[in-house]
Amino acid sequence: MKTPTVVCFHGLVGNGFYSFSEIAVLLEKHFHLLIFDGPGHGETTPFESEEDYLFSSIAMWYKRVIQQVLSKPFYLMGHSWGADIALHYTKGYPDEVLGIVLLDGGYIFPQNQSEMSFNYAIAGWDDYMNRSAYYEWAVIVEEYKTYTNRWNHIKECYVASLFKKKDNHFELVTSKFTVLSIIKAFFKEPFSETYAFIKVPVLLIHATNPTELDVAREIGILQLKENVDDVMIIGVEGAGHMLQWDEPLQTATEIKKWIYEKET
Predict the structure, then answer these.
(1) All domains of the chain, ordered by start, with CATH?
(2) Which residues form the AB hydrolase-1 domain (predicted)?
C-alpha cells in the first residue's frame, strides 16, 4: 500500500512543532507528514492585512504553499484553528483532499457556545494577549502545565517555541493583531458554512474536558452528522483541548486506523 500524505494545520498561537511533535513520532512511519507554520506563527511571516486572515484567504495561501511540494491528493489534519482551516481548504479545493481529521476543532467555536458573542470573544482574546508578557520562565511553565494532564520536560520545549525573548521579558511570537484578526475570521466565515461542501470522509476526535462544553459539543456533533455524509466521531475520555498531548497514543492510533480503512 502506498504511503498516504497528511498535511497538518496547527492551532491558534501555536506552531507545527508545538501542536504535532508528540504524535508525529507515532505517525511518521505510517504517513508522509507535512507540517507547516501558519501565517504569523512559528517561523512564518505574518500578514499585514486583517482580510488576509480570513479562512478563505488562508486556504488560498496554503494552496500556493502545498502545490509547491505536492501534486497528488492528500489528507488534511487540523487541530483547533487548524481544523477550521482544513474545512475551508476542502470547501475551496475539494479535488485535492481525500479526507479530513479534525482534532477538537471545526465544530464548536464560536457559534455553538452560547456565551461566545463577538464582543465577548474579542475582549477575552485581547485580554489574554495583553497578559502574555512574562518576566519569569517559571511562570510560563506553571501556566502551560494546566493545559495538559501529562506534563513533562519535552512539552516545555514545545512551549518554548511559542515565545521570543524581548528586552527583559518573554512574549508570544504571534502578535495580538494576528490573533484578533483570526478571531474575527471565525465570526465572518463560520465553520458550519463549509459543511454542505464537504464530500470527503471526516474524522472528529474531540476532547471530553472541560465538561462545561458538553452541550456545545453535542450541538456541533449533531451538525456534523446531519450535514456530512461520511463522518466518524471519537471522544477521548479525560482529554482536554490538547488531546494530542493528553492521549497521544490513542489519538495516533485512531488516526492510523481511520486512514487505513479509507485507503483499503
Answers:
(1) 5-115+176-263 (3.40.50.1820)
(2) 4-248
